[in-house]
């Protein structure tokens, strides 16, 4: 059974574990954010690792940057919401059989909300 509404823990779960439903732009945006977090304070550094990172993580694509313009949290929410709306029936969500809320991980066997165990 799928949850009827999207809430923060479900957003986090979808964003973390439903990668195969990301669009190409969303993948680039996630990489760009990671690159900025890891290497952003050294954008002009000429070390080989930084140069390799520029091509792998950073992008000048304005569509990608537009996805991140309202912050990473908003990007996560928008991406997870899109995936949920478009692929709701395809998602293999690990929900609690008792309260029907999302588990922490796809293999979790205890609910973080009601603490029900389904081992």
Summarize the structure.
50% of the residues lie in helices and 0% in strands. It folds into two domains: 1-18 and 92-119, no CATH class; 19-71, no CATH class. It is mainly alpha-helical and 119 residues long.
Describe this structure in words.
- With about 120 residues, the protein is mainly alpha-helical.
- The protein folds into two domains: about 1-20 and about 90-119, no CATH class; about 20-70, no CATH class.
- The protein contains five helices and no strands.
- The longest helix has 16 residues, at about 25-40.
- The chain starts with 7 loop residues before the first helix and ends in a 32-residue tail after the last helix.
- The relative contact order is 0.19.
- The mean pLDDT is about 90.
Task: Look at the helices and sheets and give the structural class.
Answer: mainly alpha
Radius of gyration in whole Å, from Cα? 17 Å
Biggest sheet descriptor: none
Mean pLDDT: 89
Poorly predicted ranges: none
Distance between the termini: 18 Å
What's the domain count? 2
